[in-house]
Every structure is written in structure tokens, then in C-alpha cells.
Amino acid sequence: MILPIVAYGDPVLKKKATEVTKSYPKLNALIVNMYETMYAANGVGLAAPQIGLSIRLFIIDASPFAEDEALDEKEKEQLKNFKHTFINPKIIEEQGDEWAFNEGCLSIPDVREDVFRKPNIKVEYYDDAFKKHTIELDGLSARVFQHEYDHIEGVLFTDKLSSLKKRLIKAKLNNISKGKVKIEYRMRFPHIKKKR
Fold first, then answer.
1. Closest to 157 measured CA to CA, from 94, 90, 109
2. Domains of the chain, CATH where assigned
3. Residue 115: left if φ>0, alpha if ψ -120 to 50, beta else—which one?
4. Would you say the pTM of this structure is higher than 0.70?
5. Enzyme catalytic residues
6. What is the 3-state secondary structure (H, E, C) of 135-160?
7. What are the distances in angstroms from CA 116 to CA 34, 84, 101, 104?
8. Is there a contact between 6 and 41 (Cβ–Cβ < 8 Å)?
9. What end-to-end distance do the CA atoms of the chain give, in Å?
10. Among 61, 70, 55, 31, which Cα is nearest to 43's?
11. pLDDT (tens digit per residue) in 116-159
């Protein structure tokens, strides 16, 4: 089932999410719905807060990046197979010099900006069977993970921009929160009252 994606301005996007327990109701169905929702919106990642649930869960399928001609074969191969469900993830280590990459977000359509992030990370997480994993990520896979991880911490990529950049995109962000944006996927806007 395709769920509406929560738009910029909704308070759920600014809340630090709570841990997911093994007894979380209908967790597998939720994960399936999240993948359907992400694919319908042509995204590479989706965090639970983006569908209105303040829980520490996100999904990633970075395979669309594998078609980027600018990447070397090793990174293309890594991205082609980078499809994971992350439950209660933790970043254990971050290393390297921060690098810029132009990021966007399904909750903030039509806004793209350069964001600086560390290139190498080590993370712990549980998969959809609640099996614990520790993996090391680099390059674009590390970046996508960090972007989604920020969502469960209540941080948006726009929070990482300079005050000048924030001022330049303020009108766009206000329009998104009011539903004044053209999109090809279902969204839920914070300032639009539901009809009774």
C-alpha cells in the first residue's frame, strides 16, 4: 500500500524517533508498504518519520545510483546491491574529510542543495528479522545512510545548510509546507486541514 509522504513543516520530521521493539504491530507489513511508497516516489531511501511514524526505522535501495557513469565499477557494484532495512541503527564511527554532494528529500520536493558529510562510517543495526549486523559503508552508500539516519534524529538536510542558503530557500520551504508544490506522488501537508 502506497502511503502519503509527510511534507516539510510537519512536526514529526523534527522529533527524535523512539526505538522499535520486536513486538511492534504489523512491522513486516509496514516495511513492505514503505518500500512500495519509496519506489512509487522514485526515492532511494525512506524513513518512518516521513510517513508520520516517529520510530527508528528506515529503508534504502541505492541501486538507481549504480547507473551513474561518473562512478567507478567498485562503487557501482556496491550501490547495485545496497538494499537494506535498518531498524534501531547506530553510527559507531565516522571517518575521513567531509565532502559535498547535492542532496534532495522526498519530504522536501524540488529542493536540492550541497551537503557535507563524512565519507566513511561504521554502523550497527537490526534487519527485518531482528538480526543484528555491523557494517562499514563509504561513498554514496554512507551518504544515503547518513541522510536517512538524520531523519530518525529529527534532522533534515536543510538544517545542515548555511544561514544564507536557508534564507535563499525559505520561500520554497514555506510553499511546500502549504502544499503549493507540484509532485508526482502522494503527500500529506501540515497546513492543509482535512475535510470533515
1. 109
2. 5-188 (3.90.45.10)
3. beta
4. yes
5. 148
6. EEEEHHHHHHHHHHHHHHCCCCHHHH
7. 27, 23, 7, 13
8. no
9. 23
10. 61
11. 999 999 999 999 999 999 999 999 999 999 999 999 999 999 99
